[in-house]
Amino acid sequence: MKCRHCAQPLTDRFIDLGSAPPSNAYLSKAGLSAPEKWYPLTVLACTHCWLVQTEDFTNVSELFDSEYAYFSGFSTSWLAHCERYAATMVERFGLDCVSLVVEIAANDGSLLGCFHDRGIASLGVEPTASTAASARARGLDIVEAFFCVDLARELVTKGHRAALMAANNVLAHVPDINDFVSGFAILLADDGVATFEFPHLLNLVRERQFDTIYHEHYSYLSLLAVARIFAANGLTVFDVDTLPTHGGSLRVYAQRATTGARPVGPRVGVILEAERHAGMNCVDFYRRFQVQAETVKDDFLAFLIEARRAGKRVAAYGAAAKGNTLLNFAGVRSDLIGFVVDRNPSKQGKYMPGSRIPIRDEAALLAEQPDYIVLLPWNLRAELVQQLDYVREWGGRFVTAIPSLAVFDP
Asked: How far is it, in rounded angstroms, from Cα 196 to Cα 225?
């Protein structure tokens, strides 16, 4: 396989998580009688441009289909993040009623709606029918397609030029990263700004967040890699923020390389130096991650086995894609975790891919009163502990596996 960005041969492995079905391919009851498609889940590191990327085994259309089940609006902390983002962008870049905001991968419109509600012209690009329909129901203008150079050109011919393009948690999801980024340089206005949010690879390694690796994430990103990819595709990075979202993310600000006039801020150099200091421009940084992930897996599995031997009942909260990576890498099935609770009605009544653990609504916790509740979306720990504080009524305790096993009271 060759690197998706620079086309150099890939020879160094970052991690091998065995095999797994697509992490958002939740099963219906009827689906339990049919075979599942499992794909190898191997991630490689390019030692030329430092882009970390999954090995190709599946087509993007199989990952983002009409029944795609991730809706961003079910997280209250994410909704608050969206509102803060919109307020910040409006103030910093002087957006008003004549500005156009384009969100790439608009999902259910949770972020784009924050601009729409302020009277700012907005357009979303979203390839999955289920979430696009939800966004349209909110009154948002949605183009149901994958973003690329051809679509960017088509939108420009229709008179669209974006003052702001938002791409939150999508850069990692695109198989052709060069084509995707080039589209921004086309659709941006001459003085327009594009922001990209993505989990920071440095944090992923430091906090052993291997469960954020799944087939939908084609790339795992450092600023070292992103700055190089952007420069090759018509964009210049001029600022960067560090964010707490998704276990530690970067928000990268970019402008057109040919017409953008904003000076490069000092935080760009600070992050790049931090990555170099950590060794992210050296192959040894990437080769050590396999052992760290296996330690997390072994400790988590040992806890579940001991809980079963002690007669304890274990459930999980959050039918998250990252949870499916953890469960399938550890080989966990419904004998170790009886059920998973999720607030999303589109997941309730279905089964986790691979592990086939049933997904139920939150009332199941009150009915079953498990001894332990594994918080699969550990990045929402504070939100979930507050939401589920009633488990203390029967002495229930919480469990997280990453960055290391933790068992704690509400």
From this structure: 13
Instruction: Report d(CA 251, CA 214) in Å as an integer.
Output: 21
Q: Contact, 4 vs 44, CB < 8 A?
A: no
- Please tell me the distance from the alpha carbon of residue 23 to that of residue 63, in angstroms, as a whole number: 8
Distance CA 256, CA 247 (A): 29
Strand order in the sheet with 340-341: 359-360, 340-341, 314-317, 372-375, 397-400, 406-408
Which 3-state string (H, E, C) describes 141-172?
CEECCCCCHHHHHHHHHCCCCEEEEEEECCHH
d(C-alpha 124, C-alpha 145), whole Å: 10
Task: For domain 295-408, give its CATH number from 3.40.630.30, 3.30.390.50, 3.40.50.720, 3.90.1150.10.
Answer: 3.40.50.720
Q: Are 174 and 218 contacting, i.e. CB atoms less than 8 angstroms apart?
A: yes
Interval 141-161: pLDDT, tens: 999 999 999 999 999 999 999
Q: Which pLDDT value is given to residue 66?
A: 47
DSSP state at residue 263: P
Buried b (16+ CB within 10 A) or exposed e, 87-121: eebbeebebeeebbbbbbbbbbbbbbbbbbeeebb
Q: Order the strands of the 188-199 sheet from edge to edge.
A: 142-143, 121-125, 100-104, 162-168, 188-199, 249-256, 235-243
Statement: residue 73 has pLDDT above 90: no
What are the extents of the domains in the chain? 295-408
**Coil, strand or helix at 365:** helix
pTM over 0.85: yes
Phi, then psi, of 120 in degrees rounded to 5: -95, 130
What is the per-residue pLDDT across 10-44, written as a single tens digit (0 to 9) for each? 999 999 999 999 988 999 999 999 999 999 999 99
